[in-house]
Design goal:
The chain is an all-alpha fold and 123 residues long. It has a single domain, classed as Orthogonal Bundle (Arc Repressor Mutant, subunit A), CATH 1.10.10. 61% of the residues lie in helices and 0% in strands. It has 5 helices and no strands. The longest helix is centred in the N-terminal third of the chain and has 30 residues. 13% of the residues are buried.
Length: 123
Amino acid sequence: MKGEAIDSLGSWVATVALNVSRSGMRRTMAERRARHRLGTPTATTPDSSHGDVVDVERAVASLPRRQREVVVLRYLLDLNTAETATTLRINEGTVKSELSRARAALTQRLGTVSMEVTNDAGP
């Protein structure tokens, strides 16, 4: 029977987290579309007394799905490139190229200085 044995607990947890994240994103997008149709505001403007507010969450959410998933698994769940590839069922090279594209897009969206980041910084 499928699902009786878990070969890699870390990959299984990451897959579950990814599925929950996808469901949450679908729900959030549906709510935004509904608010837009109803004409209600979706977010409040940040208080100017807090200075420049960097909205990393919104910037990551604006990435294409694959880039967003790779960023979340790699940087938020702290999976290495191989684990990220296994979780998403893609090649490690694809993980690296999607991370590169995502970092470039985030750099542009957040207005930060581009920094070289390695994919697998070892201890």
